[in-house]
Amino acid sequence: MTRVEVAIVGAGFAGIGMAMALRRAGREDFVVLERGASVGGTWRDNTYPGVACDVPSHLYGFAAHPNPTWSGTYAKGAEIHSYLEHVVEVEGLSDRLRLRTTMRDAEWDAGGRVWRIGTSSGTGASSGDDGGVGVGDDVIVADVLVLACGRLTEPTIPRIAGLEQFPGPLFHSARWDHSADLTGLRVGVVGTGASAVQIVPELKRVAAHVTLFQRTPAWIVPRGGDAYSDADRARFVADPSSLEALRADLYAEGEARFASRSGDSAAAAEAEAVALAHLERQVADPALRAALTPDYAFGCKRVLLSDEFYPAVASDAVSLVPGALAAVEGSTLVASDGTRHEIDALVLATGFASTRQPYADLVAGEDGQTLAEHWSGGMTAFASTVVAGFPNLFVLNGPNASLGHSSSVLMIEEQAGYVTRVLDGRSGRVLRVDPDAERQYSDEIAQAAASTRWMTGGCRNWYVDERSGRLALLWPGTVDAFRERLARADGSEFLPAPDAAHRGRELPGPDREPALEGSPV
C-alpha cells in the first residue's frame, strides 16, 4: 500500500500539468499513475503516418516551458511526445511517475475520508507499452484523486457486419500497426476526420490505391505554416522575449477564431468562404467537389486544417466513397450506397469514446455510485472540474473543458490552477460539491451553447452527448472567459463542513458573481 496526499491518473499534458502545478504550490506528496511505458498520452499512442498537431506549436505547450526548437509552425506527434518527456526530466518528476501502472478501480472510503485506488503494473494496457515487467499490484491511498486520463484515449470501433472477419491487416488509427507493410496494397480508410486528413496523403504515397469511406465531409481550411529555420530557432534561444511575443500573438489569434467556430454570422461566413475557395482551388472535378462540400454550418463539427488532403483525394490514387462502410464480406467492403470495393488492408479513423469516458466505470464515489452512473445522462461538473457525489475528486480535460478554436493546454493549466487554489483552502476537510452548484453551472453551459453552431448547425458532432442533447465536451467561450469563470469560484461550490456556520467561508477568493447576460457563460 502507498499513502499520498494526491494521486494523479494519467501522464499526458493534463497529468504532467497537474504535477507541475502541485509542485509550484509547494505540494510534494503526490504520485502520477500511467498505464503506458512512457509519458505522452495521445502523443505517445498516436503514431500513424503524418500525425501532427493542428494547433500552432508555440501555443501547444506549457507556459513555463517554451520550446525554441520546434521544427515548424505545427509540431509533429513525435516532437510533442519528446517535449513532454523533456518537461518531466526538467521538472524532476520521474521519481513521482509509476509507468505501466493501470488504475483498476478507485473507491471513496467515507470512513477513512480517502480514495483507495487499485492498480495493476506491467499489464501492457497501452500501445505505448514496451512489454516491460511490472512490480505487481498495489493500492494507492490518497486524500485527493485527480483524473487526468484524457478524452481521446479509447478508440471507437464501429459495429459493422463482418468487420472482425476481414482477412487482411485491420487496425484503428490510434493503434497503428507498424508491422503491417502497406506498400503496394489496396488500403481502405474509414472516416474523414482529423486523423484521416493526415493519414490519406501519406498512404497515397505508398499504397497501390486508397479507398476512402466518407460518411460526412468536413470543413477544411488551409493549413499553411512553415518550417522554422536554424536561424529562427537560434533567435528564439537567444531572445526569449521574441518567443513570448509569438505565443501572445498566437493566443490572440486563437481567441479571435472563437467567433467563426461558435457561430458569429459574419466571422463564420468569412471563414466558410475561405474553406470553399480552398476546396475549389484544389479540386477541379465538380462532382467530387460537391461530394466533399459539407451540408451543415461551418463550425458545427471540428474544422480541419490541411493543404494535402484535397489534392490526394482528387488524384487517381484515391477513390472517395461518399457514404459509410455498411458491411464487410471477406476482403470486399460494401458501402451504404451498395458499391463494393476490394481491399487488402483496412484503417479505421473512426474517432474516440469522447462523451462516455472509459475511466468513469472504474470510479465509485459516495454511496457506491460510479462516475459513469452519475454521468448516465451526460457528463457534467462544476467548473468543468469537480463533481457532486465524488469528494476530493478533480477531473481535468473532462466535461466542457475542451476547445474548438485554440490550445487545450491553456484550459488544462487553468484547471490545474483551480485545483491548487481549492487544495490550499481545504485545511484537511472533505470537499463535497453542492449538487445545485453543478446543476447551475451545467445550465450556464447549456444557455451559452444554445445558439452556437455546435448545437444549431445541422450536424452530428462528438462535442454533444446524444444522451442529454447537451454540449458535453467543449467550453462554449474563450479561454479568457474560462479563466474568469474559474476565478469567480469562491468555494461556495462546496457544501459547508459540519462545523461551518455559513457556506462560502472555507475558501479564499473573489466574490462570486452571476454570469452576465450575453456573456459566454
TrEMBL record:
It is an enzyme of class 1 (oxidoreductase). Its EC number is 1.14.13.-. It holds the Pfam family FMO-like. InterPro entries: FAD-bind_Monooxygenase_sf, FAD/NAD-bd_sf, Flavin_mOase, Flavin_mOase-like. Residues 500-515 have a biased composition (Basic and acidic residues). Gene3D superfamilies: FAD/NAD(P)-binding domain. Keywords: FAD, Flavoprotein, Oxidoreductase. It comes from the Bacteria. Residues 493-521 are annotated as: Disordered. This is NAD(P)/FAD-dependent oxidoreductase. It comes from Microbacterium psychrotolerans. The lineage of its organism: Bacteria, Bacillati, Actinomycetota, Actinomycetes, Micrococcales.
